[in-house]
Amino acid sequence: MPHPLTRAFFARSPRRVARDLLGKILLRDAGKLHLSARVVEVEAYLGINDPAAHAAAGNTARTSVLFGPPGHAYVYFIYGNHYCLNVSCEREGKAGSVLFRALEPLFGVQEMARARGITLHGPGDLPKLTSGPGRLAQAFGITRPRDNGCDLTSPASGLWLAEDGFRPRTIQITPRIGISKAADQPLRYILAENPFVSGRKTQVGV
DNA sequence: ATATCGATTATCT
DNA sequence: GATAATCGATATG
Q1: What is the DSSP track for A117-179?
Q2: pTM for the complete prediction?
Q3: Which pick of A25, A32, A33, A181 has the fewest CB atoms within 10 Å?
């Protein structure tokens, strides 16, 4: 049985939290709806001194959760279309966070497909559910303001993180995706060779 | 297979 | 007024 991650787990640097979140599980419990998926791709955002981080703009109405206690959901809306999910890290007052970029569905595949508004035609379609930060948020019904600030260490919140004993084999670290500032820093953590990791599907070079 | 582009809005300059 | 931690559709090789 999965058990929730602790506050102390998140009260560390974004790099360590990101690294250790790989292989953990995100769960959604809303009445009859139960979803779960394994974390396979995340990015670390380092706080006010990271030009690519929303926290670089300071503690505003939008970013206040980042400056609050660790282990809480920071949900933002982007490109007029998509929501994305982060978890706050470090101590209260320090704005590090981790962005969830891709998950591997474990339970509730049909419900995720319905939330995404797509029909599955085969196993090859599964990555369309949760591969990409906007996709996984839609699959889990994560929106702002409703889910912004919710406690991801508490099953009672209906959106939480847990571990089930899974141990990742190979972890790779690469530059972050989709940003223009500080784009060279290696802060993206992925489970190597997991088909649910977002981005290029074809291997270039070797 | 890769490249380009439109959608649509909160936030900041 | 411009841009953005994205996605999906369309065009082209």
Answers
A1: T----SGGGTHHHHBSHHHHHHHTT--TTTTTT-BTT-GGGSEEEEE-S---S-EEEEEPSS-
A2: 0.96
A3: A32
Positions 22-61 in A, CB within 7 angstroms of strand C: 43, 45, 52-55
The whole-number Å distance from A167's CA to C4's C1' is 35
Residues A17-66 pLDDT 10s: 999 999 999 999 999 999 999 999 999 999 999 999 999 999 999 999 99
Is the C-beta atom of A180 closer than 7 angstroms to strand B?
no
The residues near A173 (Cβ < 8 Å, ≥ 6 apart) are A186, A187, A188, A189, A190
Exposed, middle or buried: residue A153 (CB in 10 Å: 0-12, 13-18, 19+)?
A: buried
Beta bridge mates, A171: A191
Distance A81 CA to B8 C1' (A): 6
* Window A34-63, strand B contacts by Cβ < 7 Å: 57-58, 60-63
Alpha carbon distance, N-terminus to C-terminus of chain A: 39
